[in-house]
Write a structure and sequence with these properties.
Oligomer: single chain
Shape: globular
Order of helices and strands: EEEEHEEHHEE
CATH architecture: Beta Barrel
Number of domains: 1
CATH class: Mainly Beta
Number of helices: 3
Largest sheet: 5 strands, mixed, barrel
Distance between the termini: 35 Å
Amino acid sequence: MAGLNRVILVGRMVRDPELKKTNSGASVTSFTIAVDNLTKVGGERSTSFIPCTSWNKTAENVAKYCSKGSLVGVDGRLNQRSYEDKSGQKRSVVEVVAESVQFLEKKGAAESTDDQLDDNSFEKSSITHEGIDSSDDDLPF
């Protein structure tokens, strides 16, 4: 039986992506995205920080067009690898190898939105549309 290894995530970058070149000249970008976890009604919300890696043209585009706070959609596969750190300790890493990264907002949109809103504006607001209350308690993020 063949296995299936597919990951699709939407989240915000927690820091600027790091673009590097391998010895063979391939581009690789490492970044981490924050993904909100679904909770039961009234439960505490939690966030997972997912390390991601992209290669070649995808890596170059991520480094060029994304920065801390950028909202991105990542489509890829889960990868587990081991390495030895500088002190000789064996380390294990689980990461998403991003085959596709979608930029879900214009560059800088996260900063301009933050400048226009105070910290509590989302908690206080409730949007209604045709009698449906879609307060932020109902949102999965």
